[in-house]
Amino acid sequence: MHLPADFDAEIWDIVAQIPAGRIATYGQLARLAGMPGYARRVGRAMAAAPAGIPCHRVVNAAGRTAPGWTAQRELLEAEGVRFRRNGCADLTHLIDGF
DNA sequence: AAAGTGACGGTTA
DNA sequence: CTAACCGCCACTT
To answer: Which residue of the set A11, A35, A55, A76 is catalytic?
Structure first.
């Protein structure tokens, strides 16, 4: 299985469909794109995401927000996403059947 | 070519 | 729950 040239764009398209107040994990997005095991590559796609893509709705499998991006948590909380005491987003807001 | 690095993930202790 | 480990993919030293 090999990486499509438009992998980043495919990921961005999926992220663009995540409703406000819901979140998704990197691995989840990789699977939805038909590329299981490419979670790390998805992270790279997020770092290169153009303005307009709600990449703040993407967290890691533990619900932790992106390192160095403190605003992400505030953006999510403003949409109603709850955070646990340990700093991780409440995973009940994960997208399902999508 | 080899080793280091990072918006990751699963398992184990 | 946290931390350590290892596996993972692509990029940079």
So the answer is: A55
Q: What is the pLDDT of residues A1-45, one digit of tens each?
A: 788 999 999 999 999 999 999 999 999 999 999 999 999 999 999
Which nucleotide, over all strands, has the C1' atom closest to the CA of A35? C9
A88 as an active site residue: the answer is no
- Give the tens place of pLDDT for each residue, A48-96: 999 999 999 999 999 999 999 999 999 999 999 999 999 999 999 999 9
In chain A, the domains with their CATH numbers are: 7-93 (1.10.10.10)
- Residues of chain A (26-65) having a beta carbon less than 7 angstroms from strand B: 26-28, 39-40, 42-44, 46-47, 49, 55, 58, 60-62, 64
DSSP readout, A25-66? EHHHHHHHTT-TT-HHHHHHHHHTPPTTS-GGGEE-TT-PPP
